[in-house]
Amino acid sequence: MLRESVRTLFDRAGGVGRSRKLRDSGGGWDGEMIRELAEAGVFGVAVPEENGGLGMGLAACGVIAEEVGRVLAPEPVVATVGLSLGLLRRLCPDHDMIGRLIGGDTVLATAWQERGPNGGPAEENCRYADGKLTGNKAWVVGAAEAQGFLVLAKGNTGPVLVMVEAGADGLSVEKLTQADGSTMGELSFAGTPAEEMAGGVAVPDALDEAVNDTAALAAAELVGLSERAFETALEYIKTREQFDKPIGSFQVIQHRAVDLHVTCEVAQAGVREALALMDSESDPKVRARLASRAKARAVTTAKKITRDAIQLHGAVGYTDEFDIGLYLNRALVLSAWLGDDAYHRRLWFDAREGEGAAQ
Amino acid sequence: MTDWNAMGDAEFRKEAREFFETEYPENLRHLPHRPKFAEIEHWHRKLHAKGWVAPAWPAEYGGMGLNAAKLLIFYEEQQRWGVNRGRDMGVQMVGPLIIKFGTQAQKDYWLPRILSCEDIWCQGYSEPGAGSDLANLRTRAELDGDDFVINGQKIWTTMAHDATHIFMLVRTDSDAPKKQQGISFLLAPMDQPGVEVRTITTLSGETEFCEVFFDNARTPRENLVGELNKGWTMAKALLSFERIFIGAPNLAQNALGQLESFARGRGAFDDPAFRDRFAQAALDVEDHAALYARFADQLKRGETLGADVSMLKIWVTECFQRITELMIEAAGPDGGSIGPLQVGNVSVDVLASFYKARPTTIYGGSNEIQRNILSKAVLGLPG
């Protein structure tokens, strides 16, 4: 049901063609689409019913993320569901901002990383005291378009989550343009007014969980992207003729196509299973391992499929005119965000060793 | 008679697991080679006494009558404990064919002898000129009075040197318009002057494969199963379940377990590059298992599997090979040594695993043939 309604919504709006138009007009997303997605219940899927959501799990969110990936939708569905709402529903479930995010009335970007090795959540630089925020944040998805920010910072008595309005005093946003035309923000705060949303040890715990969820959902988005990229390449090799035959009749092309198909099916099964297991698992360490399993698989798959899909298209695959390049570019961005495959295999291995040692 | 299908899945799994764990001889677990019947006869007698020789056969023929879901559990438990399949060509291939296409007389005569292993069967399909292109087979059978007279050669006939009977695809009409037509399914005794068996030594030094030569060998005409010239269709009808079985995760999972304890003992995990390759292999196995579960669920819901199930075999066999290659890497200078390598209290025969993995991408329809099938039947590519 969820899958069909989201797919129909995107298709009616123009599918990948809509995403291309948004990119060509300078990046960013479509506010009207945010409201339509909200009406379809997309943002509140994982929020408990008593807080105004649908109370479904990560696997259901994954279904939506796959559909987002298929049409390369630039709306920050995964970042909102996984990070912004992931933090708020865990830390301040009764805050009225939750309803505003679910309803699509506002979009918040989450700023949790700082420049440092591996982009870890270092709270050293960003300080919060007396209602003012000072310091820097990096790799903020949707920073250019969001109406506000959730920021992880160090308060007087420990970690805090604060909210900052877009355009607040002393806030500057530097845009880093990404391969797919979207931007990430580098934020700096100089005595910027901020509202404290939550504090204490619960903050880093909630952040870990939210980041795990988001990595897993990014994996699902990559699975949808990979599937559609493969379908696009498959349609192309069935119609493109050389030597008076469709190139898809040549065995070397066929075997490559089969390998991509198999890779894609394995990724879909593996990522869906990981998300379902995360729903039934409460130990954060195990959930982290599962999220890494999902992201590692999805990145490896999306890299392979989008690159080979370009090759199967031949020269036209290297032009901006054909959609397949959009898939490659989006795959680059989603792969780098929250850690690529090598990074997550490392996390996965370490988590597994940790579990082994604990037994 | 027990109705196993009425049992819950978990209960049945427990029953199978307990039986294997208590009754299966420890020294025969995870055998690296195919045993001759004498080596596993003792185990076969136990299975026979319990009525568990033929899990897939209907109960009326002496089988367990398991449905697809229970059958999958049975095989999963068998593989998990490293229980050898035994000499099961009769049970897996001949029996189902006779049950489906045979006469009452054929059922009455052959089926009990298959269950008791009084007859031990080998499969005569491949020929020197008919491997991947199996329908190209040329071994002829011609009627002469009440007998078929057989001339030709079969190859890769597993354990033919330890079999009493062969079931074979033979050409009975050389003038048929398509080569798939004109093929029949025939049973023949091995112990006769016109049959000669030569073993083939493999890379691992084993002699489980044979060549079988037929020089005016004879078999009674009542040993034709099904209709004359309809053997190809019959043989194909049997393969659908085999295709998920051949793509099951167990071989790769077992190898991964061996790799892990071996690599740990050898200190290979100190090397971050090796850790990454191990993680890749382990995740390849985990995610394959997720895909396998999807197909297994299809079977459990009573659906028939499509041609897409072949993707399991492609992925898992190639993954199995990579795992055994990592074992060799972890063995370092011992990577060329024949026999078990000792690490702490674990002993791993690295080369045996490596060799075992090689033919998996060749047999059961080579992975290239599987890719051809997927490309046409699933992706709809032309030509």
Automatic annotation (TrEMBL), chain B:
SUPFAM superfamilies: Acyl-CoA dehydrogenase C-terminal domain-like (SSF47203), Acyl-CoA dehydrogenase NM domain-like (SSF56645)
Boundaries of every Acyl-CoA oxidase/dehydrogenase middle domain copy: 122-216
Protein keywords: FAD, Flavoprotein, Oxidoreductase
Start and end residues of each Acyl-CoA dehydrogenase/oxidase C-terminal domain: 229-378
Cofactor(s) named in the record: FAD
Entry-linked InterPro entries: Acyl-CoA_Oxase/DH_mid-dom (IPR006091), Acyl-CoA_Oxase/DH_mid-dom_sf (IPR046373), AcylCo_DH-like_C (IPR036250), AcylCo_DH/oxidase_C (IPR009075), AcylCoA_DH/ox_N (IPR013786), AcylCoA_DH/ox_N_sf (IPR037069), AcylCoA_DH/oxidase_NM_dom_sf (IPR009100), Mycobact_Acyl-CoA_DH (IPR052161)
Span of domain Acyl-CoA dehydrogenase/oxidase N-terminal: 11-117
Keyword Mitochondrion: no
Domain of life: Bacteria
Family affiliation: Belongs to the acyl-CoA dehydrogenase family.
Name listed for the protein in its UniProt record: Acyl-CoA dehydrogenase family protein
